[in-house]
Write a structure and sequence with these properties.
Strand order of the largest sheet: 1-2
Oligomer: single chain
Subcellular location: Cytoplasm; Nucleus
Keywords: Cytoplasm, Nucleus
Number of helices: 3
Protein name: Small EDRK-rich factor-like N-terminal domain-containing protein
Bound molecules: zinc ion
Shape: rod-shaped
GO cellular component, one term: cytoplasm
Main location: cytoplasm
Strand content: 5-15%
Helix content: 55-70%
Order of helices and strands: HEEHH
Structural class: mainly alpha
């Protein structure tokens, strides 16, 4: 039954390959998530503090830099 065994082996191999690709895809999806999170970091134009979202940035700006002009995109929030 050499033929049958070969078939099983090749099935196992392709299953391994698929698992590897899945792993790689999962990995790159994680990286993309990280990159997206990084892009969401808002850096204060005045003191360079990093904020996770624009609302926090706006609050920070109002509290810490009331005399500075607030960036237009924060006013719109
Ligand atoms: Zn600041």
């Amino acid at each position: 039954m050499a033929r049958g065994q070969q078939k099983v082996q090749s099935q196992q191999k392709s299953a391994e390959k698929a698992a590897k690709i899945k792993k790689q895809q999962g990995h790159s999806a994680n990286d993309q998530k990280k990159a997206a999170q990084k892009a969401l970091v808002h850096v204060c134009a005045v003191c360079k503090a990093q904020m996770p979202d624009p609302k926090t940035y706006k609050q920070h700006f109002e509290n810490k830099h009331p005399k500075n002009d607030m960036p237009q995109d924060l006013k719109d929030l």
